[in-house]
Amino acid sequence: MDNKFSSSWIEMRQVYDMQARSPLLFEYLDKLPTTENINLLDLYCGSGSFLVWSIKNNINYKKCVLIDYDIKLLKSIKRNIKSVIEPHLKIQSNTNNLDLLIKNNKEIISNIKIIKNDCNKYNKGYDKYQLISFSAVLDLMSKSTINNILKIAKSDCALYFSLCFNGKVKWTPSNTMDKYILSFFNNHQRSDKGFGLALGCKSIEYISKLAKSRDLSIKIKESPWQIKNHSEMDKIFLNRYILDTKKSLFHMEGIDRKILKLWYEQKKYEIDNKKISLYVGHNDILIKRK
Ligand SMILES: C[S@@+](CC[C@H](N)C(=O)[O-])C[C@H]1O[C@@H](n2cnc3c(N)ncnc32)[C@H](O)[C@@H]1O
Q1: What does the pLDDT average to over 266-282?
Q2: What is the pLDDT of residues 245-255, one digit of tens each?
Q3: Does domain 7-166+197-226+282-289 have CATH number 3.40.50.1260?
Q4: For FRET with 75, which of 94, 112, 170, 280 sits at 20 to 30 Å CA-CA?
Q5: DSSP readout, 197-258?
Q6: Residue 289's beta-bridge partner residues?
Q7: Distance of CA 67 from the midpoint of ligand 1 (Å)
Q8: Closest ligand 1 atom number to CA of residue 46
Q9: Closest ligand 1 atom to the C-alpha of 10?
Q10: Across the strands, what pairs with 163?
Q11: CA–CA separation, 135 vs 51, rounded Å?
Q12: E-strand spans in 10-146?
């Protein structure tokens, strides 16, 4: 939620991300003549949320390279994959848990290389991949980062921007302060998150227009979080969500801290008493050369 990329937050949201991801990628893969030789590059991969979702949904890439600069998150990838693979499959790994093989007896199903590196400096070897994933990062990016990434799109290499925050947050029931808080939140998302000035939710309109102007094909689907607050886990997550929102907005210029505090306290009461649910809008976006 802020530019420190809290690992506990990234881990915590994984279960909601898993439910939210749309069928857009299945629809794309279904139309390909073969999916057996797809190599995946997952940039800013975090704890491997995108690959874990793929494996859970029986999408097995022949070779995967996952890159992030947070070693703690990278080291959790093996555990996260283990939690979703079918019981007859085994994961073989090196001592660092960064080179993984998913095996069915002796047959290698997938070869996964996890690399600690700065993705902003990654600029080589894109032609080895048929799918490049950017999960939950588009809204953190600046115009120039997006301009450069779109140059990689080819007819046999799709760019998949999943879980892109689209600026829509709806509480049910809502209150009169929600709109005020959301406008500050969406402005906060447009600060520098390590890629230059972030576009926040405006990144979706920006990338759509840019793709069309470069004659690339673009497909978009909704992938929202819909958190009903039915379980203890939902309650913990929602409480973390409002706390992080309060912390992020507290020092913003122009914010009325009394309203922020009142909003937080009201939401906390409603969450703790299971009187409220949350919708957070995201989009999945697939771009390739026609
Ligand atoms: C919002 S998280 C998304 C993580 C993951 N893709 C997911 O879907 O859960 C953003 C990730 O980008 C990583 N990150 C940000 N800037 C980076 C950079 N320059 N190089 C490598 N990783 C970076 C962070 O460590 C964090 O894991």
Answers
A1: 96
A2: 999 999 999 99
A3: no
A4: 280
A5: B--GGGHHHHHHHHHHHTTEEEEEEE--EEE---SHHHHHHHHHHHHHHHHHHHT-TT--HH
A6: 216
A7: 9
A8: 27
A9: 9
A10: none
A11: 10
A12: 39-43, 63-68, 90-93, 99-104, 107-116, 131-135
What does the pLDDT look like over 91-125, one tens digit per residue?
A: 999 888 899 999 999 999 999 999 999 999 988 78
Residues 224/282, Cβ–Cβ less than 8 Å? yes
Give me the amino acid identity at 120. N
User: DSSP label at 194?
Assistant: S
The string of DSSP codes covering 29-58 is: HHHSS--TT-EEEEET-TTTHHHHHHHHTT
Cβ-contact 84, 55 below 8 angstroms: yes
pTM for this one? 0.96
Ligand 1 pocket residues where CB is under 6 Å? 5, 10, 44-46, 49-50, 68-70, 73, 118-120, 135-137, 194
What is the signed CA dihedral for 121, 123, 129, 131, rounded to 10 degrees? Answer: 60
User: What token pair was written down for 103?
Assistant: 């095996």
* 138 closest CA partner among 219, 227, 205, 237: 205
Number of neighbours of residue 206 by Cβ within 10 angstroms = 16
Tokens of 282: 């995201």
Backbone phi, psi, residue 241, to 5°: -60, -45
Spans of all domains in the chain:
7-166+197-226+282-289
Q: How far is the CA of 44 from the centre of ligand 1 (A)?
A: 4
